[in-house]
Structure formats: C-alpha cells, structure tokens
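**User:**
My hope is that you can spare some time for a protein that puzzles me. This is the protein in question:
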Amino acid sequence: MRLLSLVLAAVLGGLAAAILIGGAAALSDSTGLLALLPAPASLIAVLLPAAGVAALLKERAPPEVGVIIWAGLVVLGAPLWIDRGEALGAVGLGRLDAHLPAVLRPTTAAPQPSPGETLLKTLPPPPIDHAADDLVVLPYEGTARSMLLTVSLESERVVLDTEMVFDTGATLTTISPRLLEGLEIDIPDDAPTIQLQTANGVRTSPLLLLDRLWLGGFAVEGVSVSVCDNCGDLNGLIGLNVSSMFRVEVDQQARELTFHPEDGDRHLDIAHWLSMSLTRSRQGLSVTATNRSTRTISGALIEASCGEPSVVRLETIAPGQAASATFPEEVACRRPDLSLLEALW
C-alpha cells in the first residue's frame, strides 16, 4: 500500500509540476526548450507547497499523502486560471488533458463581430491635414471588379468599423439593415426615398445621412446612404458619392487602392435633401430650395433646363430653412426641368 501511494504521489506530483511549468511557458508565449525548464524560483514555487502540505500531515499520514493532495488541487484547479490543455501541450503532454476531470473556468463572453464587421469603437481615426501630396493606401480583398475595403462609418453616437465593396458603378453608397442597427440609426417616417433597379424589379429604398465615412485618415462628411434589404452577406457598397471625392489608383498586383483627395462638389449627396419648387412672377422664374437635412448647404447651383438652360446660385441654406432666387435668363416653357449641378455641405 505504501508503494502504491508513493507511485501515485510521484505521478500526480509530476503532472502538477508539468502543468505549472507548461502554464508558465504558455503564458509567456515562449516555445523554446529553455522556456520549458524551471528556473530556481519556479522549482521553489513547485516544491514548497508540496513540502508544506506534507509537513502538516506528517503526524497523521505519510508525507506522500500531502503530495497527492497538493498535486490533486493543482490538477483540478489549473483550469480556473490557465488553459490546462495548452499548459500540458507546452511540455508535450497535451493528450493527457482529455483524460483529466473537466473544470470550467467562469468567463464573460466577449461580443463577437459579425462577418465582415469589427467591434464598435468610440472615437474616429485622427483626420489628416490635407496637403497636395496627401494620400492613403488601403489593401483590398477580392477581385478588381469586387474590391472589399475596411472603412469606418460614423453616426451621431457610434463609430463602426466594417468591410464594404468599392463599387464605382453605384451612384449612392448602400448599407445593410444590420449596419444600420449597429450604428443606432432609426429611419424617420419622412426620410427621402430613391427608386432602385434590382434583380427582382424596381424597389423603393429610404435614404439616410451618415455623419461621415472614413477611408483611412480621410473623412467624407455627410454621406447619403440607401438601405439595402436584400444585400445578402454584403455590408454595403461604397458608391460614387464617396469615390468622386478622390482620385483613385488601383494596384492589382499589390491588391491596394490609393486615394488622393480632391475638392469635389457634393451634389450627389445633397440633391436628395434639397426640395425645389418654381414660381413665376413679373420678375421672371424663381426657384425656392428647402434644406431637409441637418447640415448647412452652400453654393447650390441650380439649373432650369428649357431650350437654353439658365442657372442660379443659392449661397447658404440653413437646416430646415428655405432660400429663393430668380433665374437671370428668361425661361420660356411652363415646366422646365430642375437639376442641382453643384453644392457643398
């Protein structure tokens, strides 16, 4: 019986020592042979508890019983503070973990990002002070016809990192309802709408105004986005209303896009938030433009097309306000076509 207890003490003691030594190696993320050898301090940490327990029990039980108790506590308690399987694997005994009693460590599940989406952040990336030689290089995945980029979308309360397809054929940027939920944006009842041609026919999509979209350190302010209900696994598309703000170079060998910022107008975004109406008086044809967005619109160049076009500029239109101007040239037809040629936020 004494021989059996000695053998059991030796086996369990060796297993406990292997867990402690392997755990130290795993936690230090070192895989060299020297990392698996215990330093003098590690030897003391391994042997002193065993000696202490044995000393306490020497009057009532043999010392090897103390070693068995100590080793059993190490084997059972290890999962509470390290990955026991990883610790045993560091010393080449990983298969033993499957034969040991399982003890689960209480954990708090960390939120997992959805496919193509990273966790929420609280601050946007630092903006770049644009100079003539400013540029940003972003890697992409996929093919030259379907380039997947990592961008940041910013709403009033949330900045969300995600992956979107860079699509120069799309006029407007599109986001999925899942991204909309992550950005904590509600679709207002009076949101403007747009007609989209899809594989299932024409459908109506509401439009929203993002605070900004970040490409690396470049921020595009006030981006109009349509909500895509049938995007499948895609988070969305980066449309011409964003890409027109840059001169873009594609390096297919390096799989990179280089963005050079340019001073472009924002009429592709603003047109959906500017309601225009015409009135005719003795002074001529006038246009009244109402700003339905939350941003100030400036430099709105509006054209009335009827034979020879006539244009007029509205310098500033505050959020929720209207501005009017009379076309300088005569517009003869009763219902000329109105279009926004230029505008800035």
